[in-house]
Amino acid sequence: MHMQLPPEDRTLSPITGWTRAHWEATADTLLARVVPYAAPDFAQFRLPGRASQAGVISDGLEGFARTFLLAAFRIAGADGAGMEDLLDRYRRGLVAGTDPHHPYAWPALRDMAQPLVEAASIAVALHETRPWIFDRLGQDERERVVGWLAGFVGRRTPDSNWVLFQVIVEQFLATVGGPHDPAEIEGGLERIERWYAGDGWYSDGAGQNFDHYCGWAMHLYPALWARMAGDTARAERYAERLRLFLAQYQLLFAADGAPMHQGRSLTYRFATAAPLWLGALTGGTPLPPGVTRRLASGNLRHFVDRGAPDHRGLLPLGWHGAFRPIAQAYSGPASPYWASKGFLGLLLPADHPVWTATERPAPIDERNFTAALPAPGWLVHGTRADGIVRLVNHGSDRAARQPADSGPDPNYTHLAYSTHSGPVLDTSSFDSQLVVIGPDGRRYQRRRIQRLHISDQVAVSRWADGLVRVETASVVDGPFEVRVHLLDAPAGSVVREAGHALAGASPPQLMPGGVARTDGLTSSLRSLHGFTGTGLVRATDANAFGAHAATPLLHAQHPGGTAMYVSLVGLTGAPAAEPVLVGVEGFTATIRLAGGAAITVRPGGPLQ
């Protein structure tokens, strides 16, 4: 291990072994290892790697802002004690960055520009460290900091989580007597009400944009705003929504701490722990303190044990290790440091129950489970024997955010995701979806999801693309998913069904009905009705979980008109009994679950 960490404490933390001391040591390493990349006077941190679309100056500001957020949690959590180096470093950076004559001065805040994002991190950090940094700046220095942040007033942002950056920055300005527009603060808070989908879930803007931004942005910033503003009425509303969210969110972590690998900005890694800590910070959690820490510490340790931070002590763009394809166009070398949000728990004092309670098991530690999450349109099923959680997607597509001339986003439109697998990120990607190749060679696939039904073990949705219409019912049972497709397509079309892409350091090996890694993790796919052939697609350097990926396939020649196809999809690390197709009658399929119960489905029609 490249970090010096305290010994495990299996008395206080019998599941992860990690305590607050491990969090502090990890934070200290992350903060120390970026210092060699600091510009003069710490105004920017220019980390190694390819620049984002915003350019190197904005990227350097990002390096300052996102590490300042981590430093702020560390400083405030220690009540400033022993934090002299951090305090000096970031105070100097603030003074230099807001000096327009400094060679590494920060760019002015402009409409729709990346520095608006970074201004919000700086505002949060300034609020949390106010007694040690902002209040100790000279009058001229404070005015320069306020003046730079005040550039946000009147700015336009994308109609998404970005509206909350304006809320945060202007609320901080209000607390220090700076320029701000109360109507913009109120407008941003009201805007997210339109995106609230119930059960604690927000879409990130209009449409079906459900992903980790719900936790690390849509819940986080309103709660931090209430912390700044002292608005108890809204704080209670946000806490109640967070409570509902966490009751479901806790199901999305594997036994080894891995978060669900779905959605964009996955390079933020353990930022996925932020809403867990936020629940403890605000009182908006249904989780006992020992469960909160077990999930959060498991999450951080998952990445630390697998190479993040890397041998340099840096967080590269990637998942476990460096993996550039996971990045978006807006991702720069310092973007992964939004992971700093995962250290929010350091704001809680060392004697808080979330740090002193004995760890308690998470749901995946104790039982198999299936759960319907109606707001995002997901079925979640986890298995205790292998610790894997899988997500069946019948509701999140981000179609409203995708350019009309682009392909569907593999992080949103696939049928299945999991804590142990991820999509192949190249143009040949077929994994976890049904694709139709028309007689003309055109590829038809799911882009916009129309929801039809969701219950504890069954979800149904519909999609259309050109001449192709598909209705799909998913039935989950243990580690398996039965997919029942009712497909209408031109004669001569080729139907291709794909299972989970399995990836690792070495090529997964072909086995009957699927592929397997050397550690026993298996991706299986079997035809139950309609498919006539099998196949395998391999990819190199295109999957976040390893250099070598393999995806099992099924295929069939479509006769034209409407036909039914049924498959059995598995992602397993331990043996399990399979559900069985009892029969197909017309466009109705009956499945017998491993426990003996039978479920009859007709995609797009009533369920029995």
From TrEMBL:
DUF2264 domain residues: 19-361
Superkingdom of origin organism: Bacteria
Signal peptide: none
Pfam families found in the cross-reference section: DUF2264
Annotated protein name in UniProt: DUF2264 domain-containing protein
